[in-house]
Write a structure and sequence with these properties.
This protein is α/β, with parallel strands linked by helices. Helix content is 45%, strand content 14%. The chain contains nine helices and six strands.
Length: 232
């Protein structure tokens, strides 16, 4: 559909277009999906500017995890172009001191030649326990390896230095969906609840039996939520 609205999809840390594969297929009748490249820049401001350059005119905007941080930055840079907003498994808060400390440790390991992407040890933070020994887990690890060490370093720097977006939430005036995996260990549901409470008229959706990556874990539920959001 050439006259369908553009749908800009923003991946998370160590994620590529595979994160959105099922949404691109399912939502194509309703929108023109564009997956942004968030691997080239080391700040959310530059990531947002690059994503904005990848799509013309107005668009609906979806970000997951790090992509949510970039989505909130896009709203600061070009609020008039965003017609709808969906924030999945993310937070409006800045990094805590403990989170930054852990990220610096991972950066040091990576720079010393110990980058391993997403290892089996880290998978429980990303996906539901029932999926740890499945082909989906292998896909998550393969996705991280494709993104690679250099992009990982840039993305961690961007995440550590992101601003506090909570003061901006009350000004969001477009239809907004806040979604979260019910078993998300990295950005737990209470962070989604916080955002939904601060964004006027936001709708909150919890995805049962999903962790941090519900677009891959429970794609049918995410697709249904996004389809309803696109036409609401």
């Amino acid at each position: 559909m050439n006259d369908a609205p553009a749908l800009l999809l923003l991946p998370g840390l160590l994620c590529d277009a595979r994160l959105w594969r099922d949404q691109v297929a399912a939502l194509a009748p309703l929108a023109r999906p564009v997956v942004a490249d968030l691997t080239q820049d080391d700040g959310v401001e530059a990531m947002a500017a690059r994503a904005l350059a990848a799509v013309e005119g107005d668009f609906a905007l979806v970000g997951l995890s790090m992509g949510g941080y970039v989505a909130l930055e896009i709203l600061r840079q070009a609020p008039g172009r965003v017609t709808r907003l969906a924030l999945l498994d993310t937070s409006a808060r800045p990094d805590t001191a403990e989170q930054t400390r852990r990220r610096r440790g991972l950066i040091s390991l990576s720079r010393s030649g110990q980058f391993r992407g997403v290892t089996p040890r880290l998978l429980p933070q990303l996906i539901h326990p029932s999926r740890l020994d499945t082909p989906l887990a292998e896909e998550v690890m393969a996705m991280a390896e494709r993104v690679g060490q250099e992009a990982f370093l840039r993305q961690q720097h961007a995440i550590m230095h992101r601003p506090d977006s909570r003061p901006n939430l009350a000004r969001i005036a477009v239809p907004t969906l806040v979604g979260v995996g019910a078993e998300d260990a990295l950005t737990p549901p209470h962070l989604a609840e916080e955002m939904a409470a601060m964004i006027p008229s936001a709708r909150l959706r919890r995805f049962a039996d999903a962790g941090h990556l519900p677009t891959m874990e429970t794609p049918e539920a995410v697709n249904a939520a996004l389809a309803a959001w696109l036409v609401a």
